[in-house]
Amino acid sequence: MDSSDSKQCHSRCIQLAAYMADRKVIDELTAWELPKLPFSAKFLLDLGVPKGRKIAMYVGKIREHWKETNFTASQEHLQSYAEELVKKPKESS
Questions:
Q1: pTM of the model
Q2: Does residue 89 surpass a pLDDT of 80?
Q3: Integer angstrom CA distances of residue 71 from 15, 34, 63, 88, 89
């Protein structure tokens, strides 16, 4: 699910399966745990990224990278990736 509110999207999928009376899908969706991004924006703040649009942009890029790894990237990997992202603009200027 690619949504800003994945819990609500998950709930709606379960409701749709219930509407379709598909018990197997209801059970599978109910048992499925949504992956949680193993990264905190606090890490970016500690790197000196200001609050607001800039930090939101970096979190979005980190989330996209995490999705590209099929939600398997570790916290350490994502922190390393974040450091590379933050350093990139400074090096090119």
A1: 0.73
A2: no
A3: 25, 10, 9, 24, 26
